[in-house]
From TrEMBL:
Stretches the record annotates as Disordered: 380-400
Record's protein name: PAS domain-containing protein
SUPFAM superfamilies xrefs: C-terminal effector domain of the bipartite response regulators, PYP-like sensor domain (PAS domain)
InterPro entries linked to this entry: PAS, PAS-like_dom_sf, PAS_4, Sig_transdc_resp-reg_C-effctor, Tscrpt_reg_LuxR_C, WH-like_DNA-bd_sf
Pfam families, per database record: PAS_4
Start and end residues of each PAS domain: 185-213
Gene3D superfamilies: PAS domain, Winged helix-like DNA-binding domain superfamily/Winged helix DNA-binding domain
UniProt GO BP: regulation of DNA-templated transcription
MF terms (GO), sorted A to Z: DNA binding
Length: 400
């Protein structure tokens, strides 16, 4: 998976939590990456009541029929309900071709709508309520170069966070909005700043405050305006903020994403999101800053869950990402207490499982993946306690 394409879809997912109508763009991007014609986020309960925050290329009649009848006999949904984990499931692994031919669900609904094949993922589970994402289409898995379940899996933690943010903001709408929005943004591990129409910082979550304190990627001037640390790139940020804060001729506020640079020349990424629920208030946009080498650290257990890494591979991926600023593999190997050759073997396995081929791409991908998670001061110790080597793997000291 291309890291830039991955990052763009993750940006769209988080925009879906705060910008009316943005879920459609997120689903379109997700369908493009995973490979499908239809994408939707759905919720089902004991009575199979359903809603879809977004779907593409599926008409209302088909969706209504699914909710009223066919959801109850969907074999893939039954498989997701049967598992206790947040997993990605390829429908072709759950239902055989022979079973599809006998299935009322596939004969009367899925096949007539061109949805013979699907991949689904559990986003959230609360009691009897199940939130899940589905990408479906007519192309079977054998016609795809990559396993669709593997392509979907890294997006599930971000979908979970985005849905949680959207629900919390919905609850806070009307009364107590500001306090609720602040509490919600502070839950995110990514550096998120709320700014007004003039670019003045109104709130910075803990990760963003840490980033501002270092001043290597962003800082504020005496008037409280957000500035990039490389002055020549400031015009790009101003244009993004202007588009996000002020409607265009059609009445639309749009965001955008730019590549910027730290004071040491290494890249960082800035995404500006119109904060649609804040119309008429001091907050006009959210600015999300991704600093691949200056973050608070990547929880190895997150990397294990998202990419299917072994404990040792997760520690290596986290350590290599942390040292991407220039420490080199020799330094990483020394810090982990293993030989350079052992480190290279684990790193090659990490590349194979994440689909990247360079340390720079790994750093970007890992930072985007872990950006939705908070990692407190004890995160590294907690991860170290959970990481047990599999047979044949050396015991690695987790990165500090």
């Amino acid at each position: 998976m291309d890291p830039e394409q991955y990052a763009d879809v993750v940006d769209l997912i988080y925009a879906g939590a705060t910008v009316p109508g943005a879920w459609t763009d997120a689903m379109r991007g997700l369908a493009s990456v995973v490979g499908g014609d239809v994408a939707a986020v759905l919720v089902s309960g004991p009575a199979e009541g359903r809603f879809t925050p977004a779907n593409i290329a599926l008409d209302e009649v088909a969706m209504r029929a699914y909710g009223e009848r066919y959801a109850r006999i969907d074999p893939v949904v039954r498989a997701m309900r049967a598992t206790t984990e947040r997993v990605a499931i390829d429908g072709d692994d759950v239902v055989t071709a022979a079973e599809k031919r006998r299935s009322e669900f596939f004969a009367d609904w899925a096949r007539p709508n061109g949805l013979d094949h699907c991949v689904c993922g559990v986003v959230d589970r609360a009691g009897e309520m199940l939130t899940w994402v589905v990408i479906a289409g007519s192309a079977p898995r054998r016609e795809r170069s990559e396993d669709p379940a593997d392509l979907l899996r890294p997006f599930l933690p971000h979908l979970e966070r985005a849905v949680a943010v959207e629900r919390r903001l919905d609850r806070e709408a009307g009364t107590g909005w500001c306090a609720g929005a602040i509490a919600t943004i502070d839950l995110l591990g990514a550096a998120v700043l709320a700014v007004d129409a003039d670019g003045r910082v109104r709130h910075a979550n803990p990760a963003a405050a840490d980033l501002l304190g270092r001043g290597t990627a962003v800082h504020v001037d005496r008037g409280g305006r957000l500035l990039l640390s490389v002055a020549a790139e400031q015009d790009g940020l101003r244009r993004l903020l202007r588009r996000a804060a002020r409607p265009d001729a059609s009445g639309t506020r749009v965001g955008g994403r730019m590549r910027a640079h730290r004071t040491d020349g290494l890249p960082c990424y800035v995404h500006v999101i119109p904060f649609g629920v804040a119309a008429g208030r001091d907050w006009a946009a959210l600015v999300v800053v991704t600093d691949p080498v200056g973050g608070r650290g990547v929880p190895p257990d997150v990397l294990r869950a998202v990419f299917g890494l072994t404990p040792a591979e997760a520690i290596v991926a986290a350590a290599v990402t942390a040292e991407h600023a220039g420490g080199g593999l020799d330094r990483v190997a020394e810090g982990l207490g293993v030989s350079l050759s052992t480190l290279r073997v684990h790193l090659q396995h990490v590349f194979e499982k994440t689909g990247v081929h360079r340390q720079a791409d790994l750093a970007r991908l890992v930072t985007v993946v872990s950006g939705g998670f908070r990692d407190d001061a004890n995160g590294a110790d907690a991860a170290a306690r959970d990481l047990r080597p599999v047979p044949g793997e050396p015991r690695l000291r987790p990165p500090r």
